[in-house]
């Protein structure tokens, strides 16, 4: 919720009165805590003394925790005295990002105290406005020197009045339209002075050097631990495995560095752009400068040939046609007109049709005079719309990689076990009088055994195989970290245009209407006879000519082209029989038409409004004195505006026929305006014109879905994935596509949620409209014999039906999210279509779905999808342009067939990682148990025994474990296990540890029972040869094979184990080798492994018998107890919805029992009076008092019915 200045200042003072914490962006969505620190010379000196005394280890610890270095070397102080600040960004009350920033001083006397090193000359004639700092709260201040910090690429300057750092903004806050018109250009000096505050106009993404990337990677805690491990092993002359670990570490470091640098280079190449632009230096003085020199307040000239915008600017003179696909994802030319010169405040949302945004392309300029097209620069650099998009890529919301984070946490459990083993080793060996140095080496060796240094490399192998398989399917991945989390996906958000559909629509035909009757459908629109329907199709649009090509909304283009009529702008027409000067264009039939002399002038246009669901245009035909208005829009809207006698009675059945087949249906009406001239027309409201229409007919279009869209959506829905469409297109088209491709099923009703508010201080009116395009109006809906309301579009009873999906526009989403955030979970859970969503709103939707516990994938192809692609757990781009930089996955095949492939491969990788993790943990614990058992008699496994286990029975299996292909069968609903600390995972690990320990102890005990047995006597620190060693080692080597086999899970996530030929061969091969070692090894094998082989052949078969029983126990517990009983049977039964992190389950449960959100109990005619006591909505109880809020927090509701259509408004 946004706070006004007084409220924000009061809250800030209250907070400051309690502690030294302050806030930046207080009350906004990106609110962050900020703390001031000043340097302490004494503390800093002590810190460096400790660093030197610990040989740099303490500095290494401070590298991992830089905030500790700040706490030690600095002391807390008020912000105005700080030379460093700590900024804490908290997300969802769970994740915290810390930013430590130096406080810089910016001064107009020069850059030597700030970020630059150039001296700036100052004279007395400098325009003071050039020294103004515009703040986020709409105020401005004139400065000569100021303290500043940079957080997330944005500048914050110190405000003495508010005692806080305030965000520096451009001219988009606190400026009136008249003030923007007053700018006439800066001199070079003024421009340079203003650049002190705003810096260079560039969106700069740093590319780190290879050296710095290597250093940062090497200082990773895991690699530091590997250095420690190698040192311990070298002390024990354990060379071979050291070399293996070093090789794997070098491979891991180099691959990580290469991937990171390549990602940085790709992002830099994509977002960096510069050029030259002409700026105004005052009255009729112009200069061409680099775009990097622009500052807010500069007046630029838009080139006549068009350009790519390098800043955000507002038009002062002239008009432009712009392609805003970078922002909206829709390649539809948009007309931008000059800003009115008036005293009202500039508002970006209200004045978006006057604003040129950075990254968009100006296609054409128009200026009816001979002057230049001027625009004043509003924002530069990261303040621009494109800069905000790039910031969302650089600073995405923290993702909850549960599996990855928990595997690291599990290391601490292993460390605790290692500590216990270390204590046991020191105590027991000290009691037996061993040398301290031997005790130390053996104790440290325990740590390297329990915590496997090869774990990171082993965990990476499964991801690498998944990446390789995806690459063969023409799907690339730039961030392997998302592989595992992508295996948990249960919600997928799709962009529409270019993702689900081809660009644009196809004309199917028309259904003309005359005198209240429908004529036969006509597929070839060019054969349509002259009349209102043909004239309306040729004129009722917002098209324009760009470089000789008809451009505009694809729907309008298709409709116009289908008529074969010719569109000419006024200044392009050679001859005109119409002298109606206000016309901006004419349309006329083709030259071979019998009426080729006919011309229709386009006089005045009312743009399409998603709220009104219509557009209209006023025309004048040649030879006629009357104006004619043509209006097209949703059928229910045009019908409500038409004369009843002109509407065919069978409209409901006709609509149902086409909409059930997924066609997009638009209606058209016309009205002759009597006794209205141009001057009177300018004073009339569109509502006065768009009424009493004659219903002309229906225009039928079909959305061209990509060939695989329907089949893939069906596959995903069978897997019980939540499917959502989030698009920048209008809601009617989006719902039509959602129905056709199967996102919205044929048995689901569609309810549009519309939020309206007069101003941000008023209570919003939230309406649920059961009339998504197209549907019959109120008077065409009649109760059936049971008294239930029938939806003619869907053929459903709407009484207490749980089968509904919600559709909402970006405008309504913003209002609800700002003023009624408690409704957001319901919108997210039941929402299917989110239309007219901006890039920021798409990202917000992704984050809100994630907060409800969904694992979200986003699939899109436009630059406006970048924020959502980056914020999602899994981003899949169908384009190799801007979106591929933000997206971990990029498909070279531009359809959604890649989505189930990614999910299947990532599920296989997740199961592989989980299996490898359990195998590596149990491999270490099994080796640890063997060591502890033998330490009890001061023996141990020999070096070559360790080497055989580590190389042949651990590394061998870990490397080939992930080669199992992803399951090729149907995508199943159940996602793989993701939590290492779940009861299922812990039971699996614990049960196997107990089984392995029990059988090792049993083997150790049984060998003592044989007559030929002689106990071990300690001779030297490296002499371990004994019967106990043989008993433990010979059995334990099979245990690693058993663990690898039982953890190699097959269907429904991976193919069976025998499909992994290398791994299966390794299992069989090692089983044979271990059997050979156990039963009858050669003398050189005995010498190599230092085996004390039994004198008689009675014990080795006993070992194999124990191995067989061990295998059966392990297989039973893993496959029956863990996988079948706990995972398949008890998992859902044990799930407590109210305590679950999957909050959407509780929301869905509540919605199923709440039969009044958003539906109504009985059909209400617009003339009926509503009894509030009998109606309840949005899950809240009705109350006779509509104007009070009860203590329980429920809101009492008042209802109103719109006169135009059947809808219910809830005012809060």
TrEMBL record:
Membrane topology per record: Multi-pass membrane protein
What are the TM regions of this chain, as residue ranges?
41-62, 213-232, 238-258, 410-427, 916-937, 967-986, 993-1010, 1030-1050, 1062-1082, 1102-1127
User: What does the record give as EC number?
Assistant: 7.2.2.-
Q: Which residues form the P-type ATPase A domain?
A: 278-393
Family note? Belongs to the cation transport ATPase (P-type) (TC 3.A.3) family. Type V subfamily.
Q: Which SUPFAM superfamilies match?
A: Calcium ATPase, transduction domain A, Calcium ATPase, transmembrane domain M, HAD-like, Metal cation-transporting ATPase, ATP-binding domain N
Q: Which reaction does it catalyse?
A: ATP + H2O = ADP + phosphate + H(+)
Do the record's keywords include Zinc-finger? no
A Pfam family in this protein? E1-E2_ATPase
Give start and end of each P5B-type ATPase N-terminal domain: 28-159
Q: What is this protein called?
A: Cation-transporting ATPase
The question of whether Transmembrane helix is a record keyword is answered with yes
**One GO BP annotation here?**
intracellular calcium ion homeostasis
Query: Where does it mainly reside?
Result: membrane
Record's superkingdom? Answer: Eukaryota
Q: Which UniProt keywords apply?
A: ATP-binding, Magnesium, Membrane, Metal-binding, Nucleotide-binding, Phosphoprotein, Translocase, Transmembrane, Transmembrane helix
Q: Which GO terms describe its molecular function?
A: ATP binding; ATP hydrolysis activity; ATPase-coupled monoatomic cation transmembrane transporter activity; metal ion binding; P-type transmembrane transporter activity; polyamine transmembrane transporter activity
A GO CC annotation recorded here is: membrane
UniProt cross-references to InterPro entries, sorted A to Z: ATPase_P-typ_cyto_dom_N, ATPase_P-typ_P_site, ATPase_P-typ_TM_dom_sf, ATPase_P-typ_transduc_dom_A_sf, ATPase_P-type_domA, HAD-like_sf, HAD_sf, P-type_TPase_V
């Amino acid at each position: 919720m946004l706070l006004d200045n007084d409220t924000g200042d009061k809250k800030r003072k209250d907070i400051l009165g309690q502690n030294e914490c302050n806030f930046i962006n207080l009350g906004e969505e990106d609110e962050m805590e900020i703390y001031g620190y000043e340097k302490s010379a004494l503390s800093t000196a002590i810190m460096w003394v400790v660093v030197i005394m610990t040989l740099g280890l303490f500095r290494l610890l401070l590298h991992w925790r830089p905030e500790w270095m700040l706490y030690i070397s600095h002391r807390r102080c008020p912000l105005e005295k700080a030379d460093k600040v700590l900024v804490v960004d908290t997300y969802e009350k769970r994740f915290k990002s810390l930013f430590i920033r130096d406080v810089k001083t910016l001064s107009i006397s020069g850059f030597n105290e700030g970020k630059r090193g150039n001296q700036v000359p100052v004279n007395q004639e400098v325009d003071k406005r050039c020294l103004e700092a515009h703040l986020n709260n709409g105020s401005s201040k004139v400065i000569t020197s100021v303290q500043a910090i940079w957080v997330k690429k944005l500048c914050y300057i110190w405000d003495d009045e508010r005692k806080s750092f305030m965000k520096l903004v451009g001219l988009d806050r606190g400026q009136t339209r008249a003030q923007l018109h007053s700018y006439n250009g800066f001199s070079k000096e003024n421009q340079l002075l203003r650049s002190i505050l705003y810096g260079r106009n560039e969106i700069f993404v740093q590319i780190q050097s290879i050296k710095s990337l290597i250093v940062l990677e090497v200082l990773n805690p895991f690699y530091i631990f590997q250095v420690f491990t190698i040192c311990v092993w070298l002390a024990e002359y354990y060379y071979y495995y050291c070399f293996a670990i070093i090789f794997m570490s070098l491979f891991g470091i180099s691959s990580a560095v290469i991937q990171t640098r390549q990602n940085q280079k790709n992002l830099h190449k994509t977002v960096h752009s510069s050029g030259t632009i002409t700026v105004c230096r005052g009255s009729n003085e112009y200069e061409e400068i680099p775009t990097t020199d622009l500052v807010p307040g500069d007046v630029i000239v838009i080139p006549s040939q068009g350009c790519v915008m390098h800043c955000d600017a507002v038009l002062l003179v002239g008009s432009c046609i712009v392609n805003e696909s970078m922002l909206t994802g829709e390649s539809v030319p948009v007309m931008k007109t000059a800003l009115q010169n008036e005293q009202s405040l500039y508002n970006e949302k209200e004045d978006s049709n006057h604003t040129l945004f950075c990254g968009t392309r100006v296609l054409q300029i128009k200026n009816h005079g001979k002057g230049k097209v001027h625009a004043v620069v509003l924002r530069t650099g990261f303040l621009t719309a494109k800069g905000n998009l790039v910031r969302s890529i650089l600073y995405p919301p923290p993702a909850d990689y549960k599996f990855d984070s928990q595997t690291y946490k599990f290391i601490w459990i292993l460390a605790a076990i290692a500590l216990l083993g270390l204590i046991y080793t020191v105590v027991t060996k000290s009691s037996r009088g061993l040398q301290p140095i031997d005790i130390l080496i053996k104790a440290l060796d325990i740590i390297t055994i329990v915590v496997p240094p090869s774990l990171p490399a082993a965990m990476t192998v499964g991801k690498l195989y998944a990446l390789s398989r995806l690459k063969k399917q023409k799907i690339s991945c730039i961030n392997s970290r998302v592989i595992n989390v992508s295996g948990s996906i249960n919600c997928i958000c799709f962009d529409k245009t270019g993702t689900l559909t081809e660009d644009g629509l196809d004309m199917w035909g028309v259904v003309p209407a005359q005198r209240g009757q429908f004529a036969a459908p006509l597929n070839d629109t060019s054969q349509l006879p002259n009349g209102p329907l043909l004239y309306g199709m040729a004129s009722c649009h917002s098209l324009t000519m760009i470089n000789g090509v008809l451009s505009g909304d694809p729907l309008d283009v298709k409709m116009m082209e289908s008529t074969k009529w010719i569109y000419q702008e006024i200044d392009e027409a050679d001859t005109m029989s119409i002298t109606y000067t206000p016309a901006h264009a004419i349309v006329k039939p083709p030259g071979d038409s019998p009426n080729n002399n006919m011309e229709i002038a386009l006089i005045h246009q009312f743009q399409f409004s998603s709220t009104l669901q219509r557009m209209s245009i006023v025309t004048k035909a040649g030879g006629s004195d009357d104006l004619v208005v043509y209006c097209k829009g949703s059928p229910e809207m045009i019908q409500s505006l038409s004369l009843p006698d002109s509407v065919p009675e069978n409209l409901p059945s006709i609509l149902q026929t086409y909409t059930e087949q997924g066609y997009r249906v638009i209606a058209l009406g016309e009205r002759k305006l009597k006794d209205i001239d141009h001057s009177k027309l300018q004073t009339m409201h569109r509502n006065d014109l768009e009424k009493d229409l004659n219903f002309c007919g229906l225009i039928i279009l079909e959305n061209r879905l990509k060939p695989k869209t329907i089949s893939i959506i069906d596959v995903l829905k069978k897997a019980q994935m939540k499917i959502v469409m989030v698009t920048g297109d209008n809601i009617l088209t989006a719902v039509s596509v959602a129905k056709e491709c199967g996102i919205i099923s044929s048995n689901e009703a569609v309810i549009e949620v519309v939020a309206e508010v007069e101003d941000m201080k008023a209570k919003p009116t939230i309406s649920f409209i059961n009339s998504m395009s197209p549907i019959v109006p109120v008077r065409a809906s009649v109760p059936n014999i049971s008294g239930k309301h029938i939806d003619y579009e869907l053929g459903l009873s709407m009484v207490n039906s749980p089968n509904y999906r919600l559709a909402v526009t970006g405008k309504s989403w913003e209002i609800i999210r700002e003023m009624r955030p408690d409704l957001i979970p319901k919108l997210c859970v039941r929402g299917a279509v989110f239309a007219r969503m901006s890039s920021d709103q798409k990202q917000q939707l992704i984050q809100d779905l994630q907060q409800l516990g969904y694992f979200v994938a986003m699939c899109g192809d436009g630059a406006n999808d970048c924020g959502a692609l980056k914020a999602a757990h899994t981003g899949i781009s169908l384009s190799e342009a801007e979106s591929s930089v933000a997206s971990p996955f990029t498909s070279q095949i531009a359809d959604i067939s890649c989505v189930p492939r990614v999910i299947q491969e990532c599920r296989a990788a997740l199961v592989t990682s989980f299996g490898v993790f359990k195998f590596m943990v149990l491999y270490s614990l099994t080796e640890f148990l063997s060591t502890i058992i033998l330490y009890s008699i001061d023996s141990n496994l020999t070096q070559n025994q360790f080497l055989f286990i580590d190389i042949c029975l651990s590394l061998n299996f870990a490397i080939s474990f992930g080669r199992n292909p992803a399951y090729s069968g149907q995508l199943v609903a159940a996602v793989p296990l993701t939590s290492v600390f779940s009861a299922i995972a812990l039971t699996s690990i614990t049960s196997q540890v107990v089984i392995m320990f029990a059988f090792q102890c049993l083997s150790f005990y049984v060998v003592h029972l044989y007559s030929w047995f002689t106990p071990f006597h300690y001779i030297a620190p490296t002499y371990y040869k004994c019967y106990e060693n043989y008993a433990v080692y010979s059995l334990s080597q099979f245990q690693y094979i058993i663990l690898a086999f039982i953890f190699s899970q097959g269907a429904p996530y991976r193919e069976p184990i025998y499909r992994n030929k290398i791994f299966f061969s390794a299992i069989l091969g090692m089983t044979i080798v271990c059997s050979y070692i156990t039963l009858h090894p050669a003398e050189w094998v005995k010498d190599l492994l230092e085996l004390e082989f039994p004198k008689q052949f009675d014990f080795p078969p006993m070992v194999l018998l124990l191995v067989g029983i061990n295998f059966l126990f392990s297989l039973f517990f893993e496959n029956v107890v863990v996988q079948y009983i706990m995972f398949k049977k008890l998992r859902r039964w044990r799930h407590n919805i109210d305590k679950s992190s999957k909050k959407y389950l509780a929301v869905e449960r509540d919605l199923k029992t709440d039969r009044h959100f958003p539906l109504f109990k009985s059909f209400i005619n617009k003339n009926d009076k509503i009894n509030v006591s009998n109606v309840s909505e949005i899950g809240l109880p009705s109350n006779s008092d509509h104007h009070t809020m009860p203590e329980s927090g429920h809101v009492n509701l008042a209802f109103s019915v719109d006169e135009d259509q059947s809808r219910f408004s809830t005012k809060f």
